[in-house]
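Incident log entry.

Two folding requests arrived from the same account within the same minute. Monitoring flagged them as a possible duplicate submission, but the sequences differ. Recording both here for audit purposes.

Request one:
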Amino acid sequence: MELYSGYVNRLVSELAALPGIGDKSAQRLAFHMINMPPEKVKRLADTMIEAMSKAHRDYRGSGAPVLFMAPSLHSDMLWVRDTNKHRLYASDAELCSVLRVSSIVDVPLMEDLVVSETVDGTTTQYDVQAIKVALKDYSIGTDKGGEITTFDDFDIDYNQYKYLIEGRMSGALTKWHCAQVFRTAKA
């Protein structure tokens, strides 16, 4: 049974899909987000767009990078308006051009991603907003000299053989300064 409009129901269902968030919490969060002052949302989105655009001068990756970000920040950036209430970015293509990336990928798991950094015995927590990287600068390989393990077993319940192939993968950035992480200090 739908209690709210389509957009609110979609927001509630997306929030409820997050780990540790039930239906009631998702409803509370949705209404909190809807009732946030537009100035606060605009300030955050403006600040992130400016920081990402200016940080590109420090980027040393190969080719056009891809921006991975939380869907909520992505939509906030697309809905930034000027003083005449006109949207600044009509499409993802315009936003990508300003941010100097080839594409933007929504990563729902980044909604609650927190990292900690300890400097001189003081630990600070940060909310990760986005990660910019050219996947051309990321190499993927296997550990243990490329070991691939295979398993086979006869399943008596289904009267057939079952096969499993397991390969452990790892990856690493291969160039200095080829990835950027955008974060904000946790309040």
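Request two (distinct sequence, not a duplicate):
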Amino acid sequence: MPERSSRAAPGGTTSAPGGGANGGAGRTEGDLSRGEAQAGGGRERLRDRFMGIDESFSVKSYYPQLKERLRELEAERTRALESEARLAKLNTELESLVESRTAALRSAMSGLTEANAELERTLSDLRAAQDRLVLSEKMAAVGRLVAGIAHDVNSPLGALLSSVSSIDEGLVGYLESFPSFYASLGKGDFGRYLGLVAAGAEKARSLESGRDRARKDRLAELLAPECPDALSVAEAAEELGVFDEAEAAVGEIGFRRAARIIAEAAKTVALIRSAAVAAEATRRTARIIEALRRFSLGSEAKSSESIALREEFAGVLSLFQDKFKRELAVDLDMDEEIRVSGDREALGQVWIGLVANALQAMEYRGRLGLSAREEGGSVLVSVSDTGRGIRPEDRDRVFEPFFTTKKLGEGMGLSLSIARKVVEANGGEIDFESEPGRTVFRVRLKAARK
């Protein structure tokens, strides 16, 4: 077979199959250089592609973009510097404001400390003033209590003093006149005398008034033709409250003997009546003191009881017996069966106050009306007088404590204020109406169970 000829390799070197000059397997230095150059060119192309630069890139064409970008960066830098300057200014202002506020706070704290000290002094002064006010109020309360007690006790004590004086004066006259009177009595006259005294004493002890002006006038007319002291004898019979017995004695033994017996019996009954009034006044005073004792000990109020109104008002009238004059008439219109439920002692002071006010308003001349009537489950009690009335401008103040239109020494203006409190405490109500010549106070209370 013909031999294969060797092909010259590029660059003048030859290689034989399976080897070369160095054994037919190596590469020339030229081959290595060309390979490296090719590799380097590939890397540059890859970089340019990655950077976005193609073969057409030139600095001149990209310059406007760079210039715009530089302007943006410069603007951002300027804004950053301006922001930094503003921040520095704000920081300075903030520090100044903090310093100012801190100084103001220190000043306020100093002022607060002074104000707190002043407040402590003021509080101390207020505590001292409060202690003085409490003491003053306690003294005022004691004063009101004493005034109320004086008002309540005044009427029964006045009646007691008047009754004792009447007994003192009457007993002297009685002891002087009785021996001669007894010696002049005819047969059966002493029995008549004792009968008149017994009948009059019964009325006197019940504290009911036997006054009857019409019958007194009729008896005076009957005695007038033969008895020069007809009016005084008729008044004595009225004092006794025994007109029937007196008229019977006149018919049995004649005017002169009957007049002497009636007059002497009236003296005796007057003593008995004064003793009964003194006893009633003493009992009422004792009840007032007992109520005060319960109050001072903090005891509970007395429970309600059934109260006979006619009996109560008869006792009240007896306390003012010495104030009654010929020009005063009393109308007592109350059935014995009418009863109310409440505190007897407290309501007793209400009746005394209302009657005393009515008598003083009339100056003990006129007509005093006392009535009671049942209305359903309640009782309406009325106390009326024919006095001057209550002025319109004073009517809204009638129940105010210490308000009074009376003369100095006649009252302290407490009776109606006390009356309203007592009536309301007993579940009732009180009101009034007034006009010149007539004033009526009305008290409504619960009726007692029968």
